[in-house]
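Risk mitigation, structural track. In case the binding assays with magnesium ion fail to produce interpretable data, a predicted complex structure has been prepared as a fallback.
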Amino acid sequence: MARPVTTFVCRSCGATHSKWSGQCDACGEWNTIENSVSLDKSRAGRATGFRAVDLKKLSDEDVEASRTLTGVSELDRVFGGGIVRASAILLGGDPGIGKSTLLLQAAARLAESGTNTVYVSGEEAAAQIRMRARRLGLASAPVRIAVDTSLRDVVAMLGQELPDVVIIDSIQTMWLEGIDASPGSIGQVRASTHELVHFAKSTGTTVILVGHVTKDGQIAGPRAIEHMVDTVLYFEGDRGHHFRILRAVKNRFGPADEIGVFEMTGKGLEEVANPSALFLSNRESVTPGSAVFAGIEGSRPLLVEIQALVANSPLGSPRRTVVGWDGGRLAMILAVLDARAGMSFAGKDVYLNVAGGLRITDPAADLAVAGALASANEGIAIAGSAALFGEVSLSGALRPVAQVDPRLREAQKLGFDTVYAPSQKKIRTDSGLVIREVLELGEFVNEILAARPSMSRLPDAQSGD
Ligand code: TYD
Ligand code: MG
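Fallback model:
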């Protein structure tokens, strides 16, 4: 069996050395040499042997990647149309967010449709997994489970079984003997992933790895292996809310940034076909500080409420707290409101929240955020039947955004009658909506705050489908 070899690698230039030294003689950098353990003994020091490398034509035909639908439609959407044979997938997320639940549901559907599926758990006992399966109503699904943490043993078992799909829950619990690092450490996680990715590519099995994210968002492991896998999905959401967003951050076989929306219920994760209705369903009344953003996440339109609160601050440097959006972007919008619309937030605490626990990445949220902030600051509500989108530039001008049509369609479907949007070419005026084209932030603030009257009406968010 291969014994571990310790080599020393320069972090800066990647040169390998047989012993540690303070300065790398390859690039001259100081303190960049780290030790690195590798298993591959047999090759070390054998620089002379080589294998012929095939050259192929770019124009050669390949067989289409073969895909299998998991049967969980929101998951299949995020994969870009099902899982790809021989691919390696990483599902990351906070502990307790629902990774094991989602994958057990997917495993059960796959197994029921005849896909040979193995679920390997290093975290839970078989009885716990069975109990979860019963709770999910999946107790009779033909999924096979293994409870083990020794990756060598697991890979040996998989090599005999050759399943179509294997789920490893979680990669941080797996350890590879011969690696001089503790389970869960970067070294172990990388080596285990390497082994499993190699297994996927050489056998055609699809490998799905679960990776826990640590509290502060600094992932112990998952971030370090993102580059080794084909697809990286993160499961997001606030544990206080029941919505869960599955987001593809990398996908070699489909669009990145696609999202799937789920709701955590007593019977596991349910797919949400109409997320806008869900995200707006808790809006009770129209209050100052609330604005509805007509956004796009991935390929899907999503209406979501942005809430702002502005309060006098007792602090020398007032608080800026933001949940679900980018803090730097909030600072920028506050500065633009001050400089271009004459609205000062000095001496005031500002809180911004995206309702429902969603995290927005669409740059078109600027206008809705500015609207919510202005409305909160002045204590005047924005009409409840209005939705907003648009990117704000430092000059206070509104910039055109992508995918206008789906935003308008979604707003109309959910019963909104007015949309504030940047002036841009492709805007459809036949949508039945009143489109208020916004050129510049100062003028927009005056307009929405003046439109005080008939703001008590809320569109019936449940009517969309
Ligand atoms: P889990 O899938 O174990 O999370 P992870 O694998 O990401 O750590 O999800 C655990 C949470 O989900 C737990 O707090 C209980 C809740 N849950 C439900 O609300 N309904 C269910 O049907 C199941 C199985 C779990
Ligand atoms: Mg789990």
